[in-house]
Amino acid sequence: MPYKFLFYFGFLIIIFFIYLSFWQYSKHLESKNIESKYNDEGIVNITISDINSLDKMTEIETAEILTLQENWLLRSRVMNGESGYNLIQLYNKSNKYVIVNRGWVPLNVNLNNLNLELISPLTGILTEYDIQTIGQDDISGSSYLFRIDKEFIENEKNLELPKLYITMTNNCGVQIICLDLYDSYNPPHFSYAMQWLFFSFCLLIVILRKNKFI
After folding, report:
1. How far apart are CA 74 and CA 136, in angstroms?
2. Domains in the chain: boundaries
3. In the chain, fewer beta carbons within 10 Å around the N or the C end?
4. Cα–Cα distance between 143 and 55 in angstroms, integer?
5. What pLDDT, on the 0 to 100 scale, is given for residue 195?
6. Average pLDDT over every residue of 20-39
7. What's the chain's average pLDDT?
8. Rounded to the nearest 5°, which phi and psi values hold at 176?
9. How far is CA 103 from the centre of its chain?
10. How far apart are CA 25 and CA 191, in angstroms?
């Protein structure tokens, strides 16, 4: 074979591309399952203690009276092309704690001027916490967050949180814009899967032609 290195190395790349395609397709199926769950199950009435027994993207409602413990502003959130924050809050009910993503607020927000009282019942979607990746670490004692990191908040406040947090979807408050979480949760995974398969096919053709198999 005149291009032996290309042959072996190219096939490793093709295997990697196929893996990426399979991963994207599995995400596509997961997204479809979540869409079906979101559309079919309806709102589940819960208490804070029930969260650990439920799945992510479950639409919930609770009439429990929650006590506000802490506010944070989640950095680098964009709404309709405008930069701002997400208002992240820690609530307590009989020493059971929960994180609530209240929604989007502009950069010039003054929390002292907002009515932060929750309107009962609280309606939202159970959401997975962010995962620590490369980037700025959250700072202890700060009023700002770079991500909703379960471990960081638990260590910061010396408490235990449920496995999911709540993203509010209704009655988020005056000057607070509720997040369309499902819309942001649905990237075009199927298109990405087909794209990686196409790249695999193109590279395969190049390898075979260079080595005079076709």
Report:
1. 12
2. 4-36+189-210, 44-182
3. C
4. 29
5. 92
6. 75
7. 86
8. -120, 125
9. 14
10. 9
Cis peptide bond N-terminal to 121, omega within 30:
yes
The CA distance from 87 to 92, in Å, is: 17
Looking at the DSSP bridge assignments, the partners of residue 206 are: none
Stated as kind and residue range, the H or E segment containing 40 is helix 4-40
Residue 180's pLDDT band (cuts 50, 70, 90): confident
Copy the structure tokens of residue 86.
């997400």
User: Any idea which residue has 């009276």 for tokens?
Assistant: 65
Three-state SS string across 137-196, please?
CCCCCCCEECCCCHHHHHHHHCCCCCCCEEEECCCCCCCCECCCHHHHCCCCHHHHHHHH
Distance CA 67, CA 118 (A): 9
Read off the tokens for 48. 């804070």
Q: How far is CA 197 from CA 12, 25, 106, in A?
A: 14, 11, 41
Q: Which two tokens stand for residue 43?
A: 């709102």
What the block records as the tokens of 208 is 């075979």
Which structure tokens are listed for 41? 């199950």
The conformation of residue 51, written as its DSSP 8-state character, comes to: G
Cβ atoms < 10 Å from Cβ of 105:
23
